[in-house]
Amino acid sequence: MKIYIENFKPSDINNIILSRELDTYFKKKNTVHEIYSQDGIYHIHNNNIYKLKHTTTNNINNSVNKPKKILNYFNETKKYRNVIIDFSFMKNDLYYKIPPIHVCSKTEMFIYSRAEKSLVELVVKGFYEKREIELNKKETNHFLSKDKYLNFVVTDFYFDIKDGLDIDDINMREDLEFFYNLLGQ
Predict the structure, then answer these.
(1) Which domain covers residue 67, as residue numbers?
(2) How far is CA 158 from CA 35, 50, 70, in A?
(3) Nearest 5°: CA angle at 140, between 11 and 157?
(4) How far is CA 141 from CA 132, 134, 149, 151, in A?
(5) How many C-beta atoms lie closer than 10 Å to residue 113's C-beta?
(6) Is the dihedral angle over the CA atoms 125, 131, 134, 135 positive or is it negative?
(7) Model confidence, pTM
(8) What percent of the chain has pLDDT over 90?
(9) Is position 1 within any domain?
(10) CB count, 10 Å around CB of 114?
(11) Domain membership flag for residue 51
């Protein structure tokens, strides 16, 4: 399940990333190659090709879960903000070939969490701009720099919640509130 903060743009989180406020909670970075074709969307991850199928059907009871918007509270100051809860998910089917006509893009995902076994992860997706910059009077780019955020552009972010977790779970709410406050909301 994913939770999005309504009216909080990717550019808003770009400044927070650059300020390094989230670095303490950095868990890992994933790179996914996304392939778009008339036949569908594919991901290449760990040398495997997956065709993505969007579904809103719950495997447990075959009920249909639609995204819903709720009014929620995240901090003690009772500052309210609309959030969107997306119960849908992408099913990955293993494939062995991709359509000959396609477009490929590379997406980087930075994943943050409060603890190793946290119920909530903040996922920040984006890409690196392909531009040269001057560092120490040398032409270089983000691959040569130790700064993982250099030239990074955020395109999407959301809270990823472990499957099957109750939306009213107190531990999940605490993790959400923590990140919500860290994001300055």
Answers:
(1) 6-182
(2) 21, 22, 15
(3) 20
(4) 5, 8, 11, 8
(5) 19
(6) positive
(7) 0.78
(8) 19
(9) no
(10) 19
(11) yes
